[in-house]
What does this fold into?
Amino acid sequence: MDSKLLSGTLDMMILDVVARGPTYGYQMAQTVLLKSDGALELKEGSLYPALHRLERQGMLASHWVDTEDGRRRKYYKITAAGVKALAVKRAEWLRFTRGVDGALGGANEWIVESG
It folds into this structure.
């Protein structure tokens, strides 16, 4: 997937995954990869800076958990501000995707018909 297409959607994807329950970075990346049928891979170089930014903005909170194998994982949970931001981002995304689909003349229908 073209990284330019993902610009601005990373925060929404992170907030959406964390809204489903506390999780850690690697697990978030795997969830997005699985749910996107392999189309979206969150790289460490973009995921972790985004997590830290969202935490600084008060949209996420974190805590450390010791694992059974002696390692520590930083778990993130969504805050009330994050829930509100996610609702706004989802509404914006829906308007955007409807607009693009309309501008393309129902591209999904065209792909099915011509495929």
The longest strand covers residues 60-66. The longest helix spans residues 80-103. The radius of gyration is 17 Å. DSSP finds six helices and three strands in the chain.
